[in-house]
Amino acid sequence: MTGDEGHYHLDQMKITKHVAQATNGWIAVEVQTNGEDPNLFPSKSAGMKAITPVADDVEEIRISKETADGIFKALPRNGHLPVLQNAMVGADGEDSVIAVTDLDSSRIFRAHGPSGNFPDLDAVRPKQEPVAAFFMDAYLLNELLKVIRDFKGIKRQESCLLFEVYENDLKKGNLPISVHAKNETGQKLRALVMPMHGENADDFRFLSEKQIEAQQKAAKEAEETAALEEAKRQHEQQQEAEKEEEPEDALQELADKYPGPTSLPGVE
Q1: Does residue 16 sit in the same domain as residue 119?
Q2: Angle made by CA atoms 142, 208, 34, in degrees to the nearest 5
Q3: Nearest to 14, CA basis, from 156, 113, 84, 92
Q4: Are 113 and 62 in contact (CB under 8 A)?
Q5: Engineering a disulfide at 159: which of 136, 144, 154, 195 sits with its beta carbon 3.0 to 4.6 angstroms away?
Q6: Three-state secondary structure call for residue 180
Q7: pLDDT at 141
């Protein structure tokens, strides 16, 4: 990325099969799919019957920031089905669309094909392993950055921060991360933020396309296995119920076949 907004179309979001990308030339953000099976999306709900799966040869689509904001606001927040908190990328005729539904109503957002150049994030993404990795509470980091942003005199591209990470002391536990800043008046700021621990780093890293497909396959197989086990359980319950009814039916059959006196001899 060069930061030259005239060279790249930075006013668009790029969406591929498993990843959405956005950048302003200084910050690049990528969001990977959560692996939800697209076939679970209720594509037959009201207002979506004309939407079909996007063609396999469509490598990417683009949407504007305004469209992305509209999609985010339209997503159901309290849906009973987790899949409804996702948007479906599909096609309406030759047009690429993104659909959102809460089952009662649907909203269709028009996308468009690639236009102009979008920064190649693969080219700038580090390929080597990180020299250090640590977890931080996003809320606490956000609160700290608010303080630093409001630090008198700090301006964009002049608000450089210094982060210092220390090797943990086994006896004292995790040591805080030091964050340093300065402003144009000569004032200096120093903050300490405690890192988090106990998380699995692999749970945060992107999956490859093969891993996503394997994840979806495993989820589908687990769902099918659960359905078979439930059907087997219901069948066994039905058999048990039929066995419990058999003695009574057999006695009734004997009574019908060999009817006896309505009362004992000598008893009126």
Answers
A1: yes
A2: 55
A3: 113
A4: yes
A5: 154
A6: strand
A7: 87
For residues 24 and 113, state if they share a domain.
yes
The residues near 115 (Cβ < 8 Å, ≥ 6 apart) are 9, 12, 62
Mean pLDDT, residues 56-74 taken together: 85
Whether residue 152 lies inside any domain: the answer is yes
* Whole-number Å distance between alpha carbons of 254 and 259: 8
Per the CB < 8 A criterion, the answer to whether 153 and 184 are in contact is yes
**In the beta sheet, which residues pair with residue 129?**
none
DSSP-assigned beta bridge partners for residue 196: 135
Distance CA 80, CA 168 (A): 44
Single-letter residue type at 251: L
Domain that residue 27 falls in: 12-123
Residues 163 and 81 in one domain: no
pLDDT digits (tens, 9 = 90+) for 125-150: 888 887 777 788 888 888 888 888 88
Flag whether 67 is in a domain: yes
Listing DSSP states for 129-148 in one string gives PPS---EE-HHHHHHHHHHH
pLDDT at 1 over 60: no
Shared domain check, 105 and 83: yes
Rounded CA gap, 137 and 177, in Å?
12
Last residue of a domain, one of 60, 94, 123: 123
Distance (Å, whole) CA 114 – CA 95? 12
Evaluate whether residue 210 is within a structural domain.
no
The tally of domains found in the chain comes to 2
- Residue 2: pLDDT above 50? no
How far does Cα 212 stand from its chain's mean position?
12
32 and 119: one domain?
A: yes
Question: How far apart are the C-alpha atoms of 212 and 218, rounded to whole Å?
Answer: 10
Write down the mean pLDDT value for the chain. Answer: 79
Q: For residues 22 and 53, state if they share a domain.
A: yes
